[in-house]
Amino acid sequence: MSLLTVGSVAFDALETPFGKTDKIIGGAATYITLSASYFTKKNNLVAVVGGDFPQEMVDLLIEHGVNTEGLKTIPDGKTFFWSGRYHEDMNTRDTLETQLNVMADFDPVIPESYQTTEYLMLGNTVPATQKAVIERMVKRPKLIMLDTMNLWMNIAMDDLKDVLTLVDVLTINDEEARQLSGDYSLRKAAQTIMAMGPKTLIIKKGEHGALLFQGDRIFFAPALPLEVVFDPTGAGDCFAGGFIGYLAKTDDISFENMKRAIIYGSAMASFCVEKFGTERVVNLTQEEIDARVQEFVKLSSFEIV
Amino acid sequence: MSLLTVGSVAFDALETPFGKTDKIIGGAATYITLSASYFTKKNNLVAVVGGDFPQEMVDLLIEHGVNTEGLKTIPDGKTFFWSGRYHEDMNTRDTLETQLNVMADFDPVIPESYQTTEYLMLGNTVPATQKAVIERMVKRPKLIMLDTMNLWMNIAMDDLKDVLTLVDVLTINDEEARQLSGDYSLRKAAQTIMAMGPKTLIIKKGEHGALLFQGDRIFFAPALPLEVVFDPTGAGDCFAGGFIGYLAKTDDISFENMKRAIIYGSAMASFCVEKFGTERVVNLTQEEIDARVQEFVKLSSFEIV
């Protein structure tokens, strides 16, 4: 089945304890589509970049089977830019600079050829923009998944709650789940948030794994303990891309299949952090992904006798 | 098989966001033996209390099948006392008061009848005391497990490293693993720590579960997401008691069986936090434990197709 991803395509400049980069390709939609490209070949992108965005980066997406018909270039605009510095623990970071540039007026246009897309992934961006995308789909996709962050809870909570009534799956981290719900217990938080709209909730806990909630059902997916976390940028987006990419590939949105999708998403995230930026996720083989998934199986399987 | 637990039997006074207690029974060895009592009936205790320790609390242990021959009472001494206050997040706490009392001169004597014990659990206490226990066992137990804490890393690191060369299983939390090893990555930390002696390492991560390391093998056990954590006191000890109690019951120290033991330990810890102090772990049925273990199975099982 086909996937439509809407979100940012950007330049990032990163500093980690292991080194720093110049401007490299980044953005939620970039990581999501690259990650999903290992699962579905019908991989539609809607995003906006400036005239400074190099053609070879567009080509990189195309090489990965991403349909860039919906990637709009504003010739006299500049591409969204973010720079950040990770702390020693790699779990916290400071934003050094954010230039919204062409993202400030991002008005997503859905190409005619995208209108029959079955799976819709709304990358982290302005909630009102996410809502506009849903409204512009002539036919409601089979599954709509949304990622967001604490920023929107601080400055656009009403808009966020509004779009949440329209989505099937929400993915946020544990801190955001607590902020959105006002509950400390993640189990309670999940019930509060699912009552806001999404029937399925994924709470990401970084190195501590992820929780999948749906009704009364809970699934806990481990994170792979890694020797080195080189750069956490994009891990959450690779996770989301792997998750929804796997659902689109299998076209099965049962809870059992979502459990598998979370494992594939976790595997993609575990690759992502091994190198700077998109370096690792642009160079993966199916064999590597399958082997990594088997590591997750070994990591978490046990048998009660 | 039989289990010998050496450690503190104490009074605790606790404050949590849900309320506060007067002096209630606590101490590492108390929680460990109570938890283990659901798995093994040969449950030997070595500890020391003062003349202020009420007989009904000793009777409570005896009712749970704990052999208290090694529980020494110093009539003119006072029982170890700890009081603490948990913060809103329930993950951090302040120690309000510590009175070592009779624990200050704790010199563990191993009764003759305990000398054939196959499984030895050294609860968190002075590393030199833990070492003395091992030296006083005429025959080396089949498995020696040790719990410790950051305090001993700060004030008795050499003694701790000394006793670590003698044990089979070490259990510590993630922060302590990082402190002991000097490595941030838990995967690296585990290798560093296992090189210090223990062939098996359990890293406890509280609400984020636990990791079991042995050689190149890793197992990740989830924690059950709970509606309410009422009082975390003793959770780590109930975990240890369930783990080693299960090993003693089954007398199987293979990695596969240790994975099961971790799940039983996690189940015991999940009960412990539901009420104040030992209230929940003194009132469990086998059916409740089995049902809780099945919740862990449901929580973490998936199938890759």
Automatic annotation (TrEMBL), chains A, B:
GO terms for molecular function: kinase activity. GO terms for cellular component: cytosol. Keywords: Kinase, Transferase. Residues 21-279 form the Carbohydrate kinase PfkB domain. InterPro entries: Carboh/pur_kinase_PfkB_CS, PfkB_dom, Ribokinase-like. The keyword Lipoprotein does not apply. It comes from the Bacteria. Pfam families: PfkB. This is Sugar or nucleoside kinase, ribokinase family. It comes from Dyadobacter koreensis.
